[in-house]
Amino acid sequence: MDGGIGLPTVRRDATAKATGAARYAADFGHSGTAYAALTLSSVARGRITRIDSAAAEAVPGVQMVLTHRDLNQDLGEETFAMKGGHMQSSFMPMTSDEVRYAGQIVGITIADTMEAAEQAARLLNLEYAAEHASAAIDDPDRKVETEEKSAVSIGDADIAFASAAIRVDHEYTTPAQHHHPMELYATTASWNDGKLTIESPSQWVVGQRAALATIFGIPAEDVHVVSPYVGGAFGCKATLLPHTVLIATAARRLGRPVKLVVPRAAMFTVGSFRPATRNRIKLGADRDGRMVAMIHEAVGQSSAIDHVAFPGTDVTARMYAIPNIRTSESTVATDVNTPGFQRAPAEAPAFFAYESAVDELAVALEMDPIELRLKNEPASDPVTGLPWSSRSLVQCFQRGAELFGWKNRTAGVGSMKTDDGVLIGYGCATATYPSAMAPASAHVSLSADGLLRVRTSAHDVGTGAYTVLGQIAADVLGIADEHVRVELGDSDLPSGPMSGGSITTGSAGSGVHVTAMALRAKLLNVATAENAPFAGHDPATLQLAGGHIVSVDGTAHSLTDILKASSSGSLEASGKWKPEFMEAVMMQQGLLGGMAMEGPVTKTHASFSFGAQFAEVRIDPLLRTIRVSRMVGVFACGKIINPRTARSNLAGGMVWGASFALLEETKVDRPRARFANQDLVGYHVSTCADIGEVVVETIDETDAFVNAIGAKAVGEIGIVGMPAAIANAVYHATGIRVRKTPIVIESILTP
Ligand code: MOS
């Protein structure tokens, strides 16, 4: 069967991953590699006053002990990612005696073995002059800084709210969370003739190449970033982390390759995290359930180093047809490492708040929560008035309600009890995710033996990009999937986008599509050239299917025969794609590793994926357990290139959502201003045993505006509505409204 768009093609990388042939960053080896270990600060804020490295240096096999005293200060300045650069934070550890957060890298020990490096790291003794620090978003001595970057103001929301017949007004809070992909951060750096090679898991090898070139003052072509497989990222591998820079510095000084694998405990502090949030939502409606006012005040945790905000208010403001909207965003500066992207960074916490509030409004109105949402469905984007590129939320709710059995829900709280006293609750919520776009380039070739090769530096972070990008090219050329090879995750490949913000399929896929179209045109030229099998035919009348070119009269010649008959024997094409309204100069910057994005709102359309999510919870008062027994999600994400990998992304997102709702919390040790968790025993994520039935469907959607292939965001939307759907189900089961995640049994039942 031909490979192609819409087929449930099995992951191209499945066998390599299952057999261990797939090489992750830490699997790369170089002869003469030395191993590094980290020493982390034991205070949250202050200065290093004394360093005693004698015991560390005396460990047999130790090659080098680095602290801020030893590091040369000639590193070039690279900018913080949120200010147009690539760094996870604008603070570079080990370039001064300053400590800005607990668990900051303050020393690196390098030895012939990992064991010796770790022993030395433990023996490296630092003393500090500590200052008062705070790591909690609700610390009263931390000032709230108000920003108006994405504030929305339509009509007069305060007056409309004050005079609304039905009102709800509550604050919802979510804690700090950490990504915790299975694959740890890892970096191997090696230098050869002034050229740097980095093996490190990355969502953006071209961005990292640009940043490392700036930092080390060398041309970008002398930097090679390799990341063919990524064992989960969830946002934490999108920016350049300080340890990668420090390991590259150490390798240059030592004159040997240096490898660091960051231990799980350090994953809580050496990279980014999802900041804690407080969202106050006010919703007003008339007695018929027409929403008249919405006010969303978002407060997010930031670091004292950088201003970072993921308020999500520009997304909540677009959900319903409300004539009066006001949103605001603020941050609280805390003494932690700078937060960053994590699994629908803005949308997941904001929608826990907003979609809980919508459910509270439905309760106040004594109205079915789906009916309330459908009654307020906007015909166009409420913020700009622009048309949606596509929006099938109503269909998602209709189909989702059917699949879930929403009609079996009895409205009264606690009304769905089993005979043995288990409380059952049904909840639902809207999900959405913006479909932003970045430029992408690709190279596609067809060899004489009929093998189709697709190359771009985009990433498969476990999402299926290896499979999907091959399908897009195979679709254009009518080639069977087993004849397709895809290369990704290497900065020497044609530049692809950052794999973040759920943009890979739409953006890299569009790059691959236009490049495959160029190859198709070349192939048809060859096929219709003088003395070629289709000499004299109009190329526009020829079809490509089953590895053949077929004319209207049914004559078929295989691609290999056509290529063999041609002088070149093989064909290749390079191509690039940019979002419609992006300037050419911006595309160029993007392809060189700069941040270049368009959307989700362009000059003509607002492009978002939408979904309806449902949860059934079962609360056992005797066993004191909250279980999510069933989840249903129906999503509309434009063209679904591969229903199997799309389902896997969406179901995975829903599992994250259950994890968000019931388990995930990075605890703050307030007196010491540090994250208390050290491992996955204390930081809970959903496992198979926590998850019941997961049902996912997609609605067929044609989106002619969003990009060259009509594919909207799939990667992150699955998490967005789930926490609220679960909280709403908990309310339905118990009559208790929990406005804080994680929802633990103590929130519902007295001990
Ligand atoms: Mo994802 S949190 O946009 O890398």
Defining key terms:
17 helices, 24% helix, 751 residues, 6-stranded mixed sheet, alpha+beta, single chain, Aldehyde Oxidoreductase, domain 4, binds dioxothiomolybdenum(VI) ion, 3 domains
Please outline the helices and strands:
Layout lengths: L13 H6 L14 E7 L5 E7 L1 H4 L4 E5 L31 E2 L5 E7 L2 H10 L1 E6 L13 E4 L5 E2 L2 H6 L3 E9 L11 E7 L2 E5 L5 H12 L6 E4 L15 H13 L3 E4 L15 E9 L5 E13 L9 H4 L8 E10 L12 H19 L3 H7 L12 E3 L2 H12 L11 E2 L5 E12 L5 E7 L5 E4 L9 H13 L6 E4 L16 H25 L14 E3 L2 E3 L5 E3 H7 L5 E7 L6 H8 L14 E15 L4 E12 L6 H20 L5 E2 L4 E2 L15 E8 L18 H4 L1 H13 L17
Parallel strand pairs: 1-13, 11-12, 15-16, 17-27, 21-22, 28-31
Antiparallel strand pairs: 1-5, 2-4, 2-6, 3-5, 7-16, 8-16, 9-14, 10-11, 10-13, 14-15, 18-19, 19-27, 20-21, 20-26, 23-24, 24-25, 27-28, 29-30
Helix pairs in contact: 8-17, 11-12, 15-17
This protein binds dioxothiomolybdenum(VI) ion (MOS).
The site of dioxothiomolybdenum(VI) ion (MOS) has 10 residues, from loops.
Task: Describe the protein's architecture and organization.
By secondary structure, the protein is of the alpha+beta class. The chain folds into three domains: 25-133 and 182-233 and 237-270, Aldehyde Oxidoreductase, domain 4 (2-Layer Sandwich), CATH 3.30.365.10; 342-435 and 602-746, Aldehyde Oxidoreductase, domain 4 (2-Layer Sandwich); 439-591, Aldehyde oxidase/xanthine dehydrogenase, molybdopterin binding domain (Aldehyde Oxidoreductase, domain 4, 2-Layer Sandwich). The mean pLDDT is 96. Bound molecules: dioxothiomolybdenum(VI) ion.
